């Protein structure tokens, strides 16, 4: 799979989670359904597998802060819900393990994305999608 290039409606298991917002980083572009990460400066961007980021939720609407300063726009996001995310390298045996970010539209497991950001816990797997509890993960070995 690849990073999102347009809005994506995600499958959600259970409740919708908590709606919040985070200031967008300068020049950030994101789509509805993008995994959102907080950068070292505390601003939101579409997730990548780069070190130093923290997954904080899933975008609830798209936006574009190209040419804007840090915080000039807000990213609305949801956290604490279970999202169906493309997971082409995972299968049912990965349920219960940690999902790691490949890009803003794809997750993998520890073996194939060792540098990816922890995105959350895989709670189900269906039709090539990992259902991941987003926004409650605080790093490897966190409680």
- Report the average pLDDT across residues: 83
End-to-end C-alpha gap = 30 Å
The biggest beta sheet reads: 6 strands, antiparallel
Radius of gyration: 14 Å
Q: Rough shape? A: globular
Order of helices and strands: EEEEEEEEEEEEE
Could you characterize what this model shows?
- The chain has 143 residues and is mostly beta strands.
- The strands form 3 sheets. The chain has a 6-stranded antiparallel beta sheet, with no helix packed on it. A 5-stranded antiparallel beta sheet has the order 2-8-6-4-5, with no helix packed on it. A two-stranded antiparallel ribbon has the order 3-7.
- It folds into 2 domains: 17-79, no CATH class; 82-134, no CATH class.
- The protein has no helices and 13 strands.
- It is globular and about 45 Å long.
Secondary structure layout:
Elements: E1 12-13, E2 18-23, E3 29-30, E4 35-38, E5 44-46, E6 54-59, E7 63-64, E8 74-79, E9 82-86, E10 98-103, E11 106-108, E12 118-126, E13 129-134
Antiparallel strand pairs: 1-9, 2-8, 3-7, 4-5, 4-6, 6-8, 9-13, 10-11, 10-12, 12-13
Distinctive features:
143 residues, mainly beta, disordered C terminus, 6-stranded antiparallel beta sheet, 2 domains, 5-stranded antiparallel beta sheet
Brief write-up:
This protein is mainly beta and 143 residues long. It is 0% helix and 42% strand.
């Amino acid at each position: 799979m690849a990073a999102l290039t347009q809005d994506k409606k995600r499958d959600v298991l259970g409740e919708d989670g908590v709606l919040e917002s985070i200031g967008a980083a300068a020049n950030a572009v994101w789509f509805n359904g993008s995994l959102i990460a907080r950068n070292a400066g505390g601003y939101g961007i579409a997730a990548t597998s780069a070190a130093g980021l923290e997954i904080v939720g899933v975008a609830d609407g798209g936006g574009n802060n190209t040419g804007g300063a840090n915080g000039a726009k807000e990213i609305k996001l949801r956290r604490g819900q279970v999202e169906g995310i493309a997971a082409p390298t995972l299968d049912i045996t990965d349920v219960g393990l940690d999902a790691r970010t490949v890009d803003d539209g794809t997750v993998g497991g520890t073996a194939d994305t060792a540098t990816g950001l922890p995105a959350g816990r895989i709670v189900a797997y269906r039709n090539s999608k990992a259902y991941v509890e987003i926004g409650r993960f605080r790093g490897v070995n966190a409680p």
